[in-house]
Amino acid sequence: MKKIAVLLLCACMLGSLATGAAAQTNVVETTPDYVVSLDSQTIPHDALASGGHASAITRYELPIDMSARVEFVDPLLQQSNSEFSTLGGDRRVYVGSSYVMGRAQIVGYSVGPIHNQKLLASVAKGKTYQRSDTLEVSGTISISGTYNVNVLNLVKSSLTGSVSGTVKKTYGTTETYSGPPESSPYTTRNYYGAINYDRYDTTVVQYDAYDEYIGNVYQGRVTEIKYIPVDSVLRPINIEYHIDQNYS
């Protein structure tokens, strides 16, 4: 079972808030390269039509972005500013908030269900085939529970590299596929692209920044921290496999 290291980006968040709170949501998005690995499992037996032999699954996984951050102004906390008198006494003035990823831990590897399966190529024994068009295989993150849009945007951006929560792989005209070798008992090799899921438990860390005053004399900036668990997140993973079969 893989574990993703805990990374708290306090310094980054505080540095951003020090220049003033963002007036609108700002989600950092990246488009990193795939990490390609071979899954030890094969597709479920009931996915095999008329028998056949399934290969191991190749996974195309985007790295998790623990630096993703959402900055925003909470209207309720901002409203509390008007409740303090500027004539004297201790008071706080709300500045702004940030969400960062505090934890992203895998708790279920390739949990399925495998879906959005698309045929990439069907190749006869001893032959090769090159695609003449492009095909896209995509899948979207699944988050159970009720959360505000900023929390959702952060988790999506961190786990998929996109605020939409969607991952995709495009198969183009440079892709070449080979059929079973001449020594194989099967006559045809079918290649598929699809989506599988890993299950993650995550923690979103909320930082609320305040400027403190005694009377009208500025004393410094303080930060309150809250933790928001977002568990059982199904993170989509692009996968690829082939099935060798006989056709009458």
Features:
about 50% strand, mainly beta, about 250 residues, nine-stranded antiparallel beta sheet, 13 strands, two-stranded antiparallel sheet
The number of distinct β-strands equals 13
Q: Give the percentage of residues in beta strands.
A: over 45%
Share of helical residues = 10-25%
Point out poorly predicted stretches.
1-32
The number of helical runs is: 3
Radius of gyration: 25 Å
N-to-C SSE series?
HEEEEEHEEEEHEEEE
Classification by helices and strands = mainly beta
**Amino-to-carboxy terminus distance:** 42 Å
Using the alpha-carbon principal axes, give the shape. rod-shaped
The biggest sheet amounts to: 9 strands, antiparallel
Q: Assembly state here?
A: single chain
Please tell me the overall pLDDT. 82
Q: What would you say this structure looks like, in words?
A:
By secondary structure, the chain is mainly beta. It has helices at 10-18, 75-79, 149-160, and strands spanning 26-27, 35-42, 53-54, 56-61, 69-72, 90-108, 115-124, 128-130, 135-140, 166-171, 176-178, 188-214, 217-245. A hairpin with a 2-residue loop joins β12 and β13.
